[in-house]
Amino acid sequence: MGDGMDRREFLVLGASASAALGLGTPPQTTQTTQTTRTGQRKLAVRPADDLAEKSVAELSAMMLRGALTSHALTQRYLTRIAALDKAGPAVNAVIELNPDALAIADRMDAERKAGKVRGPLHGIPILIKDNIDTADKMRTSAGSLALANSTPRKDAVIVERLRAAGAVLLGKTNLSEWANYRSTRSSSGWSGRGGQTKNPYVLDRNPCGSSSGTGAGIASDFATVGIGTETDGSIICPSGICGLVGVKPTVGLWSRAGIIPISASQDTAGPMARCVADAAALLGALVGNDPRDTATKDGAGKTHTDYTRFLDVAGLKGARIGVARNLAGFNPDVDRLLDEAVAAMKTAGAVI
């Protein structure tokens, strides 16, 4: 499978850098190699650090009890990005980092210490797609060299709401230039400004969709949650390819003001996360009417600010799920992970 690796391997690559952050001693990575049935050489490693792929709720609970600060969490992600996005496997998911990220984290830590917690996203680092306006030290370019020096005068409305929710805006993610509107023969995840984003699981394969930088970045554990945008498949496709939960909200649930558009009737931003609960937490935090976007009026009285209350641990009970087995024998890791997924679904009450 080319330059492939599974998530467990990828996560550990940045673990050694965590020791310097006071996040615990990383596991010793006994670096032996194995050969798969396809002849692929792979690195056999142990699990990553204790913060690997923690959810919004888990990280918030750690910060609540004083076991973690937003500063330490933000620095942990910055260190992973330095080790894995531009170096090592060079995923190239992040187009620009926010130079004020640690300062924002410090303010959120100070507020928490003073007894003020804004909500579930307080102190949580997030990555957003580079077609969403931020009135800060970062650019908003849609990946285009034509806008490489563009600094918006005003935040997108969803960015205003992110800041109000206490999220730490960590950086901007690469994308298919102009959200894949540049050419009918464009490459998913390529932009003139950012270059080519890679699929973090198989580095020489398509990361899919114009929100591929957010997809690859969250799958690589470069932030807790992320935001993409979609006209037709640009959230859903990279989420599916990168093993994430992607939600394209009903148009008007989130304001579209301050987002470089393609279609006035189809475009919307939406959450990209590693679990349903995280996607739900982010979804509710950014809901609301906005005079700059008339589509938001249609949601009056129909929206919620907390979609996590609809989560149902018994949601798979009785569900009938078909599983494609055409990859069996192709790769032992695929076989093993598929077996684990099927067993988990059966335990949850699904009928396979």
Topology:
Layout: H1 7-12, H2 15-18, E1 32-35, E2 41-44, H3 56-64, H4 70-84, E3 94-97, H5 101-113, E4 125-129, H6 157-164, E5 168-173, H7 177-180, E6 190-191, E7 195-196, H8 212-219, E8 225-230, H9 236-241, E9 245-246, E10 268-273, H10 276-285, H11 332-347
Parallel strand pairs: 4-5, 4-8
Antiparallel strand pairs: 1-2, 3-5, 6-7, 8-10, 9-10
Helix pairs in contact: 4-5
Let me know the number of strands: 10
Low-confidence runs:
1-6, 11-47
- Please count the helical segments: 11
Main sheet strand line-up: 3-5-4-8-10-9
Global geometry: globular
Helical residues, percent: 25-40%
Topology pattern, helix = H, strand = E: HHEEHHEHEHEHEEHEHEEHH
Distance between the termini: 28 Å
Overall mean confidence score, pLDDT: 87
Main β-sheet description? 6 strands, mixed
What is the rounded Rg?
Answer: 20 Å
Q: Helix/strand-derived class?
A: alpha+beta
Q: Strand fraction band?
A: 5-15%
Tell me what you see in this structure.
- With 352 residues, the chain is α+β, with helices and mostly antiparallel strands.
- 28% of the residues lie in helices and 12% in strands.
- It contains eleven helices and ten strands.
- The protein has helices at 7-12, 15-18, 56-64, 70-84, 101-113, 157-164, 177-180, 212-219, 236-241, 276-285, 332-347, and strands at residues 32-35, 41-44, 94-97, 125-129, 168-173, 190-191, 195-196, 225-230, 245-246, 268-273.
- Strands 3-5-4-8-10-9 form a six-stranded mixed sheet. Strands 1-2 form a two-stranded antiparallel ribbon.
- Strand 1 (32-35) and strand 2 form a beta hairpin.
- The chain is globular.
- The model is unreliable at 1-6 and 11-47 (pLDDT under 50).
